[in-house]
Description:
By secondary structure, chain A is mainly alpha-helical. Chain A has four helices and three strands. The radius of gyration of chain B is 30 Å and the shape is elongated.
Amino acid sequence: MSEITPDLVRHLANLARIQIDETETELFASQLGLIVDSVAKVKAAVAGDVPATSHPIPMSNVFREDVVEPSLSQAQALSGSADSADGRFRVHAILDEE
Amino acid sequence: MAKDELMNYEKALEQFEVVIGLEVHVELNTKTKMFCGCRNEFGDEPNTNVCPICIGLPGSLPAVNKRAVESAIALGLALGCEIAPTGRFARKNYFYPDLAKNFQTSQYDEPIAFEGSLEVEVPSGKVFEVLIERAHMEEDAGKLTHVGGSTGRIQGAEYSLVDYNRAGVPLIEIVTKPIFGAGAEAPELAAAYVRSIRDFVKALNISDARMERGNVRCDANVSLRPHGTEKLGTRTETKNVNSLRSIERAVRYEIQRQAAILAKGGSIIQETRHWHEDKGSTSSGRPKSDADDYRYFPEPDLVPVQPSKDWIEAIRETLPENPAARRKRLQAAWQFSDLEFRDVVNADLLDAIEETVSAGAKPQSARKWWSGELARIANSEGKDVTALGVTTAQVAQLAELVESGKINDRLAREVLGYVLAGEGDPAAIVTARGLEVVSDDTALIAAIDAALASQPDVLDAIREGRMQAAGAVIGAVMKAMAGSADAARVRELLIAKANQ
Amino acid sequence: MSDLIFKTAAELAQLLAAKEVSSVEVTKAHLDRTSAVDGDVHSYLHVGESEALAAAAEVDRRRAAGEQLHPLAGVPIAVKDNLTTIDAPTTAGSKILEGWIPQYDATVVKAIRAAGLPILGKTNLDEFAMGSSTEFSAYGPSKNPWDLERIPGGSGGGSSSVVASFQAPLAIGSDTGGSIRFPAFVTGTVGTKPTYGAVSRYGLIALASSLDQIGPVTRNVLDAAMLQDLIAGHDPHDSTSLPESLGSMTEAAKKRDLKGLRVGVIKQLTGEGFQPGVTKAFNESLELLANAGAEIVEVSCPSFEYAIEAYYLILPAEASSNLAKFDSVRFGLRVTPEGNPTIERVMAATREAGFGPEVKRRIILGTYALSSGYYDAYYGSAQKVRTLIQRDFANAFAKADVLASPTAPTTAFKFGEKVADPLAMYLNDIATIPANLAGIPGISVPNGIAFDTNLPVGIQLLAPAREDARLYHVGAALEAMHEANWGKRMIDFAPALEVRG
Ligand SMILES: [Mg+2]
Ligand SMILES: [Zn+2]
């Protein structure tokens, strides 16, 4: 049976920076439980010697020359942001004031 | 924050063995960033060297800078590393506002270079072999400015501002294996190691290597364990130590701090600590809640790096002289004593002296100027000696003026003052200010006669071979000429007079 | 209602080239159609009327000036709303991007503009392309023009319904596990997922980077071929884009000869679990192919048993990382909780409010699949299953030139039928997912009406990597035989939509 407990869901949601309420926590725990149980069979599918495929079409050594390309203007860069000041993106305090 | 209790350094070393590990981040001097074509430039207007890729706009994709890869291979080779036949980029996932994509594109289990080593000499002359675990490529983060609260620190700031100009700048991270057995010299070894990494990347011309700009940054891991025990102690990672001096101080501080805790039966918390240059102490860093789980996985938007033998060998061809070999060569060429040479190395004056010598100065006088008068001035002004503003050519010229007897040491120091004040080159200053030593004998003879008038029996004394009597006259003459006389010449003339 | 809208892109291209119609007329006709039917169908999240007409006028001017133009110049097109466009909001169907105007054009969008195709608007999709029905769009679902009670497929239901309802002759889609082919299947249209890397992903808001691929959505095979020729090609901004050209799809779509062609029927994608009406239509298509001289062989792909499971580990894992950038700092929604919160709390509140339930579900699942201690068991194993599936395909393509299966097991379902049951929803992709895992190209071509539900169905053709041309060759030939039998095009079976003022 699945190891997806509400506590694990809370931990994962925190890692993923999603603030979820209790009802969602319970719902996700049960839904993810089912999904995880069903996907768990991939573990059985592969013997150790099978190599992993991370790129469907194998390629290597794709590089850019070290040549400058045009950047955005400062105004363009900031145009989508919710809040900015002094040509920079403004964000809330990083630490709680202790 | 409460002040840390520190144990006396010697006592700490009596009780504990020090184990250090060093992570050095080197910012490359490529024209463009690691994964996009934005300029890799320090100090530009905020968010002007940014594009959809380096501010992580939806839909954008990275593309690897070939020059950055070549730089990583070159450094790997210089550090005696294996170059991986297949290297891969990976995503290191954690949320932080200076990280545009909320993951850092780095390398994880397949770094481009691994298993190297580096011989590092500490001031005492002892040489340690530092084993390199890996060197990998990654991207720098943006720059946060903390506003409000106490002195722009992150603690108590009201808000923060993000500039992504630095986001995506190519970095190479070099990680050592744990370093044992440095004992009391662990702090010096840490600093010397970072210096030699800096020397390497400078020599390779892959980084500007300016520590004050954060081109070379060191995270120092320190742990203690009771002598004779196997198990490694809990380590702390001190970040943000960005000068050779502070690396030494920070390691020393952590040794004393941890020793005090352990001696009391306390235990060390595995944490990031921040070095504060001003206070000369470390403080507990922000609790990184995600630190336990970065969820690394292969970067699906990039393909593996598989450097061919030919490519690697071509890069090997371009490697410059190994800094250690260079030091041996220079000491032999300059004929400095071990002590003299070590002082020069520790004072970081190799480049300055080499340039001064090639500008025509004798090695010894070049050394005397740089580690003597110039070092003294730099010290009193709290500056780096190479940042005083005097050029190696000017120092060479100054030395030459003394060699040729045009000016004496006292005048030379005076002239140096004018050079530092921006009056131009020594030779020009000497003529402009008429500082040449007086070699016109008539003026000297007049001064000698004046001096003899007050002490006539000196000539007899000289004739009788009591030379010390000459001193008084010479002194008087020098005084009269306000120092602009060549004492040796005065002596000659005086003797000549006595023997008339 | 101008009947220009019922013409194929190829037909419109000819009329434009012959200067019998102007791009402004053609564009206007489709915009009129949109104001008449999109209130019901809801294909569009944004209609760029003035921009489209301006682009049309410009291409008419260039044509009048005698400039050398792209074959499709002047033919209007709709673009899925997960491709960035500097002149139109781009939301990916999510509240978290509501109102965002991108600072750059996707490479595909650049190519479309350069070729002079007016962009009519941005089409609806399940939020971040996570879904099979558009029910997970934050802006409400699109409807299936064949039956407004039913789903148009997903995630690209906006693009499938926009061509099926004659609001556009061409549309762009993206396919991560079937998001182009499944919607084509349920709307009686054509959709292709090209070989991974054939079309640049630069500017496509990533779902799962190693699975995503942009492709054409049209009403017939030739139009799809012409559109793939337009959007395909190497792009230095996409490090996974193929360096080489795959040749002309348009030429391939003009071939009809099937003699000696080996068509492999995938054992694991037939029979049990497939709706009788779907299977019957599939077998009829096989007969047509056989009658035309093709050799039908059976192939076995045993690892497909694990395809969905591997897919639902790889996709959420990559998505959880790709979607981390939606954090309120540089673009998009920012939700600030009460009091004076830290940036961490602002990010968490923003993502809570900005993401829908399916997105959160998959992000959390993906975070789990990547987290230390589980990586090897889940993400690692799934990547190995990919290798097994590639081996299955390699063996199958040793026996056959193309592979065939029904595109999906069942015809269009009603809204709400599966939304509460993720696992049931995921099963729609059973036939389409293997191609994404292996990076090979696949096309869905209409092959009739299911006798049991009276809804459209389609056949999926698969080819080896880089052999996209085979899909257009076989697909066009099959389409021609079907149309000969029916005496009309598949789309002409569709009931007429009610036209509103
Ligand atoms: Mg690092
Ligand atoms: Zn950039």
